[in-house]
Amino acid sequence: MESSVVLKAEHITHRYEKNNIIEDISLYLNQGEIVGLLGVSGVGKTTLFHVLSGLLTPIQGQILLEGQDITGTSGHISYMLQKDLLLPYATILDNISMPRRLKGISKKEARKEAEALLEEFGLAGCGGKYPSQLSGGMRQRAALMRTYLFSGRVALLDEPFSALDAITKGEIHQWYLNVMENIRLSTIFITHDIDEAILLSDRIYMMSGKPGHITAELAIKRPRPRGREYVLTGEFLEYKRKILEMLK
Length: 248
Hints:
By secondary structure, this protein is α/β, with parallel strands linked by helices. It is about 35% helix and about 25% strand. It contains seven helices and ten strands.
């Protein structure tokens, strides 16, 4: 794992009206790293993502992207929500090439860039289809590809696999780990699923409390990609035990 820090949040606090939602949060993301953000509902994980992405300006703290202060400014970091939000009237190719067009690239060139990545993202032959013609797993692949084309540096994924059934989720986890080895997109993802956090992450931050704050950090030493059989090992169960203790 490369050790150069690409994203850093320092002492982030944000409130709505008079109540702090998140308080004094500091975290970092290394180049090519996948970091899980684990916690129960209501601790401010999505609020933190809104701050990291520049959709909200914190009342305290700063966000640094490759050393540059981007606090309160959007357009630097990709942000993928729980729902894929693919436009139903546009083809998959037009959906995923949209970020490039928003950055001023011509439609023809944007489609060419996107088309070159379809096979790598497991979407070969799907460019001319519409979202309604794809399964939930394939739609999530398209959404992740669109996120990557917005910014190939850093992405925030808000529960990206929560809408999938258990079997599809297992398949998409393995696909996700494999494709991330190739594209090296530095990523923080929100999850409520402890197993998912252990399987996918290089490190896991745990949030709890009201206001929400980082209460613990755990590094997963087993290199990724980790196969499905990893969840049956004693090492995996020991990580799970540690996380359950930390979340208490």
